[in-house]
Amino acid sequence: MINTINFKKNIYSSITIAALLFFHSCSTTTDKLIEIVPGGKAKLEVEISKDFFAEKKSIQLIGSTAASRVPERTAIQTASIDLNDKYTLSAAWVAEPSAAYNAVNSKAASNMLTTTITTLQPYIKYKLLVFDDKGKFISERDYTHGKEQQEDQLLLQGGINYTFVAFSVNSATVLPAVHFADETNKTLATASIANLSGSLDFMYAKVQKVLESDITYKLSLEFKHKFSQITTTIDAKSTGYNITEVQARFSPHFNAASVNLSTGDITQKGTESLADVKFSALHKPTVTSSPTLINAAATQTASLTINSITIGPMQKTDALSFKDLALKPGVKYNLIIKVNPKDEYLTHVGIPAARINGSIWALHNVGVSTSQDPNQEPITAALHGNYYQFGRIIPTAGPTDTNINSEWTWRYPALDAWNAGSIEAPKKTENDPCPKGFRIPTQIEWRDLLESTTASNVGNFKIHDTHFNAAKVLTSKRKKNVRLVLPAQGWMNTNSYNISVGLRQRGININYYSSTVDAGGMWRLAGDDLDIDISYLQKGRLTQSRPLRCIAE
Q: How far is residue 33's CA from residue 106's CA, in Å, rounded to a whole number?
């Protein structure tokens, strides 16, 4: 039966209400007819459209010997621990913005409503509560996703500012009961869920709407996940063996909670415990858990403990812990743990390189002969490479030049000019000047390198167009004879009118592009004799020219 609303404020009035419950993973659309009914009544179709998390973050294990904080824009935490004398487990938490959601539009001309259907399984149960302008409980309905029209009619009076509250636990069988502090005087202020299991995927929505006559309404209820959710992947492909056993847990976690239905606020209940990470498909080089729900308040001290892990003949039963992880309720995480070989020098596809925390870095800048000793002291101009504009394969200046050549352009490049993939799964493009088997590193990979090394100086740092002997040296924290030397080449600058003004700060400034950009600008590695870090530059700087260092694909 289609649900109807009866508004009694004005006679002969016509009101159309469209109530939508929004959900995540939108992919297709359907049209739902909203019919105006004579006598002040309107039919209401309640639909699930999408859900969302507060934000989506990825956690990719890439990192350093200790967790670290970085600027909010990067939102990366990194950590690394030893598995044994040959391998390490490394990690980074990488923030990503929430996916853009499709708009839900009303087609007034045809009285049709376009909604977005989700990948959620059908028959998920959810409850809708209605309160009047004084907070008094009016009515409630239990709906089943895909069977909404089978519920009884819902009758409401027009001219009132209603509060609509909806919730679900993403289950086809479970729907928690609503508790009122006073059953004889049910109000929004006293409505709650008294004992919610911490293992349920609780979602909440609330909206206020004044329902007047002669107006078409769209009541949009967006469901927000209230617990954290983490999917954990362990990648041991580098070992050549299968993962046959894993026991891991997240902390903190509580087994129960109460919910204030007026605000959606969660209060943890009971004793703090651990949340088990469950892997259902083992005996593979890479294994992925089912999502782990975390019922805990926001914390900077969450942890993942791997109590035991077996990879081929390697068995580790001493607890391995990643600590001081920043965890927020309502955020979805993907945690990727990589098993990496220890740091060493090697030759990769014919290029001299160093493996540091699992990543393979070229020992020379682009344009430098690989026959040069990368660790020579004093450093000479022979270790200085070409200068490149972002997204371009042709150099705009040579190693000893002080100004750009005729290849320089004022045009801005495409944002994906050096990365056809994502920040977590980069893909080399045809514009990439790195040699075969290598590509421009992402901002995450530069961050990982800094967290996996200690920085020092070589040579005399001073600004001069012919000063070539200064460089930053990044030495592996695990093996001190493995290091990368980054000459202080400076960069070819542009002014506020996007006109090239030639060389800046050779002899003191370390300045290397990454492949990571967004609509506002780009990330680069930058430093001097005092410091080195990842920093953000506005879009106008993309036409500047910088040296390049490559990482293996």
A: 10
Q: Among 139, 108, 177, 160, which Cα is nearest to 46's?
A: 139
Dig out the tokens for 155 from the structure: 């009758």
pLDDT at 285 over 70: yes
User: What is the per-residue DSSP string for 422-461?
Assistant: -SSS----TT--SPTTEEPPPHHHHHHHHHTEEEEEES--
| Phi, psi torsion values for 144, nearest 5 degrees | -120, 125
* Residue 208: count of CB within 10 angstroms of its CB: 11
Kindly state the percentage of the chain with pLDDT values over 90: 56
Q: How sure is the predictor about 213, in pLDDT bands with cuts at 50, 70 and 90?
A: low
Q: Catalogue all structural domains in the chain, each as residue range(s) with its CATH number.
A: 3-53+99-225 (2.60.40), 55-97+227-341 (2.60.40), 344-552 (no CATH)
Which pTM value belongs to this model? Answer: 0.67
Does the pLDDT of residue 436 top 70, yes or no? yes
What are the distances in angstroms from CA 359 to CA 158, 423, 484?
64, 15, 12
> Contact at 8 Å (CB) between 261 and 193?
yes
- Describe the chain by its helix, strand, coil percentages, rounded to 5: 5, 50, 45
Residue from 282, 294, 162, 288 nearest 225 by CA: 294
- Residue 64 makes CB contacts below 8 A (sequence gap 6+) with 78, 79, 80, 357, 448, 451, 452, 477
Q: How confident is the model at residue 209 (pLDDT cuts 50, 70, 90)?
A: confident
Residue 203 and residue 183 in contact, taking contact as beta carbons nearer than 8 Å: no
Start-to-end CA span in the chain (Å)? 58
271: left (phi over 0), alpha (psi -120 to 50) or beta: beta
Q: Can you tell me the mean pLDDT for 16-41?
A: 33
Q: Per residue in 71-86, is it b (16+ CB within 10 Å) or e — as a string?
A: eeebbbbbbbbebeee
Cis geometry, peptide bond prior to residue 433 (ω within 30 degrees of 0) = no
- Residue 332: what residue type? K
17 has a pLDDT exceeding 60? no
Q: How many CB atoms lie within 10 A of CB 307?
A: 15
Are 18 and 106 in contact by the 8 Å Cβ rule? The answer is yes
Local structure of 136: helix, strand or coil? strand
Rounded CA separation 75/77 (Å): 7
Residue 524's identity, in one-letter code, is R
The encoded tokens of residue 56 equal: 């989506």
Work out the pLDDT band at 46, boundaries 50, 70, 90.
low
